Amino acid sequence: MYKLVFKRFLDLISALFIGFIFFIPMVIIGILIRIDSKGSIFYRQNRIGKGGKVFKIFKFRTMVSNADQIGGYSTKKNDNRITKVGAFLRKTSLDEIPQVFNIFLGDMSLIGPRPDVPAQKSNYTEEEFKKRHNVLPGISGLAQSRNRHNLNNKSRKKYDIFYNEKVSFFLDIKIIFWTIKTLLKGSY
Fold it and tell me: pTM (2 decimals)?
């Protein structure tokens, strides 16, 4: 019941709350992005969602506008494509706030495995892919709240599949608290 109905209700309430709390900061961030570099305020990228469905994820743009053509989808710690404002947004994870729009659209949840880019599909067997993508992806998830950037693909898959098999209200609450703790330490 939680996974089918209550989780979606909590996602919508959380997205409204986050959107309300961060409305003014989002406007300020948008202005700072425009001052710092040319291009759109938002970055939209194809990601894999529930059931393997591809959707566009919203994020604040943290890199130069042609970053994908310069170096692909993967970033490194001192990537020279990251803008000055973008470095701050990534460190604080504020670049993720626009994903509340994805929650409203039904593409994402507050808690779930982080959505893969389509190129990552090759990292899975067919069975792993089905298990990994049987719930909505999340703004934060078990893997991100426990080890953030210190995971290899095998470990990340293990966390994500474990979460998908054990989804519960109490696990989501734990992940929220672990995420807050991780964010307070800083992302990079």
Answer: 0.87
